[in-house]
Design a protein that fits this description.
Helices cover 15% and strands 29% of the residues. The protein is α+β, with helices and mostly antiparallel strands. A 4-stranded antiparallel β-sheet has the order 1-28-27-26, with no helix packed on it. The chain is globular.
Length: 563
């Protein structure tokens, strides 16, 4: 799309369904860091990688031992690996480029949510949130797990199962957790309506942030820039918090804040530290319908917040700006929404329906082909304009030239590449995987028509060793079936002589009498009359009867004659 013909007054959020993707029954989706590949987990344990530019399947990751539904999927920072969690209590890491399984870890309970450590390009550590269990840190190489605390009373000395909240309508509650931008801290949303900042290396709670209403937190996630934290609570409210900690060295800042509050008790101190870490920025909810939210996330630049309705009979996506204004409600088919994701750099939302289809919501661009001057502004209604004092003054040409102060001797740098602000943290030792090479599949050979009306050539019919002839011979379709019984008799004779063994068909040498009859037919002049289809069909049937009446008889010396 040409940016010059796009109306700049349009908002950068999707409006209509542009396309849908279909592959089995997809349950969860995730974009890679650049937004060029889309991974989807299916109900049969398959992980399919879509090329989002061409909307075609680039890779299928399938484990013959895993046929259970996938609950979550996550990309590594470099894009070379994906982590999937399944209902068979397993965590599997796949190599996207080769399609091989790297590691597989068995969990005690079904993981509903798993995320890779963002501080490394190679998958070595992940955060898993299982049903009716506290979040755990999993070492993917050794399989060792470390349970994180979910309440203040436990601190770093123990762990317990999260209590089920009475107002929660989630059939499988879990304690959600996520890494911050660089992965040095873990933010846990408890069932008591609190956000805990946990140092997972020392297994210690470092700060507590109470959430208004004390409702159980169902989902928690950071924006791509790490400046905002989003929570989805069971009180039907989506909240956005502003992160006051630095993106790097967050533990050092927590130590400095804690040293200045030593006079407070343990719980009060943790809450005081938390008040300086997260500040409530905005709340989003539907004040009319009071609906629950199935999923929620930020846009790529954190300017928009979206929430997917949890109602079973509708597919609605609410879009708010960061100021709290509802700007758009996307209404899809009458199918429940399961998961959604916003494209990292484009105004595109991808949602998964209950039937397993993936819908792509894009912007409905309005093209403006008006040919005006670059500095011309098109007005929708008349406006009173007051000209400047020097706007229409005549300026000498010499002064215009003098204003252009350009150093023509300065060298222009055409080799350096400016860093994109969206991916300014690309401090990766491994090259990022953006696209997958195509893998062409061989064409499927279609079977020939039974009555010789297919696309096979005469060479395929004559050569019994060709693939088409061999395949057709096995299916009974390879040879051209003649209307008379010559080949049938020849095959029966050959079968009797060989004791019932299968033999290749051979061509018989015609006898002298047969050659004489063929010569006489050629010499007889005949008129070509046009016959109706009924007459031609009658003649064909009579010729078949005559041919059957004149069947060849094989003599002992190998010659044949006609009766």
């Amino acid at each position: 799309m040409n940016a010059a013909i796009i109306d700049p007054l349009q908002g950068d959020f999707p409006e209509v369904i542009e396309e849908y993707l279909e592959y089995g029954i997809m349950k969860c989706i995730a974009f890679n860091r650049r937004g060029t590949l889309l991974a989807a987990g299916c109900s049969d344990g398959t992980c399919v990688i879509w090329d989002f530019e061409t909307r075609g399947i680039a890779k299928e990751l399938r484990d013959k031992d895993c046929v259970c539904a996938i609950t979550s999927i996550c990309w590594s920072k470099s894009g070379h690996y994906v982590l999937v969690s399944a209902t068979d209590k397993s965590l599997i890491v796949w190599n996207v480029l080769t399609g091989e399984k790297v590691t597989q870890t068995a969990m005690e309970k079904t993981p509903l949510y798993a995320r890779l450590y963002p501080g490394s390009c190679t998958p070595s550590l992940c955060l898993a949130c299982s049903v009716y269990s506290a979040p755990v840190m999993v070492d993917l190489n050794s399989g060792k797990t470390t349970v994180l605390p979910v309440s203040v009373s436990e601190g770093a000395n123990g762990h317990s199962l999260p209590s089920r909240n009475k107002i929660s309508d989630d059939p499988a509650p879990l304690t959600p957790a996520c890494f911050n931008k660089h992965g040095d801290l873990v933010y846990v949303g408890s069932s008591k309506g609190e956000i805990l900042i946990v140092d997972y290396m020392n297994v210690q709670v470092r700060a507590i942030i109470p959430v208004a209403g004390n409702a159980a937190i169902k989902n928690i996630s950071f924006s791509r820039n790490g400046q905002y934290l989003l929570t989805n609570s069971s009180d039907r409210t989506i909240r956005v918090f502003e992160n006051s900690l630095p993106l790097k060295d967050g533990l050092k800042t927590l130590d400095e804040i804690g040293n200045s509050l030593n006079e407070l008790s343990d719980v009060e101190k943790l809450k005081a530290i938390g008040s300086q870490c997260l500040v409530l920025f905005r709340e989003f909810h539907d004040s009319i319908t009071k609906i629950h939210w199935k999923a929620s996330c930020f846009s790529g630049d954190a300017e928009w917040v979206i929430g997917g309705s949890a109602s079973k009979g509708e597919h609605k996506i609410y879009i708010w700006d960061r100021a709290g204004h509802l700007v758009k409600i996307l209404e899809g088919p009458k199918e429940a929404l399961v998961d959604l994701a916003w494209h990292p750099i484009r105004p595109i939302v991808v949602s998964v329906s209950w039937t397993g289809l993936v819908y792509i919501w894009a912007k409905d661009y309005t093209e403006n082909w008006s040919a005006f001057a670059p500095d011309f502004k098109e007005l929708e209604e008349n406006e009173e304009y007051v000209e400047r004092e020097d706007e229409f003054d005549i300026v000498p040409e010499s002064e215009k030239v003098r204003e252009l102060d350009i150093n023509e001797d300065e060298e222009v740098d055409i080799l350096s590449v400016d860093k994109d602000s969206t991916f300014s943290d690309s401090d990766m030792s491994q090259e990022e995987l953006r696209f997958l090479p195509p893998c062409p599949s061989p064409d499927v050979i279609e079977q020939q028509d039974k009555f010789g009306g297919g696309s096979s050539t005469s060479a395929d019919r004559k050569n019994p060793g060709s693939p088409l002839s061999a395949e057709g011979g096995q299916n009974g379709l390879g040879e051209n079936h003649l209307p008379n019984g010559l080949e049938a008799v020849a095959n029966s004779v050959a079968g009797d002589a060989g004791g019932g063994e299968t033999r290749l068909k051979r061509k018989r040498k015609p006898s002298e009498k047969g050659l004489e009859l063929q010569v006489e037919k050629v010499k007889k002049p005949g008129k070509k009359n046009v016959k109706s289809p009924a007459q031609s069909l009658k003649l064909q049937s009579s010729s078949v009867v005559n041919d059957d009446a004149r069947m060849p008889v094989v003599q002992d010396d190998g010659s044949d004659y006609y009766q």
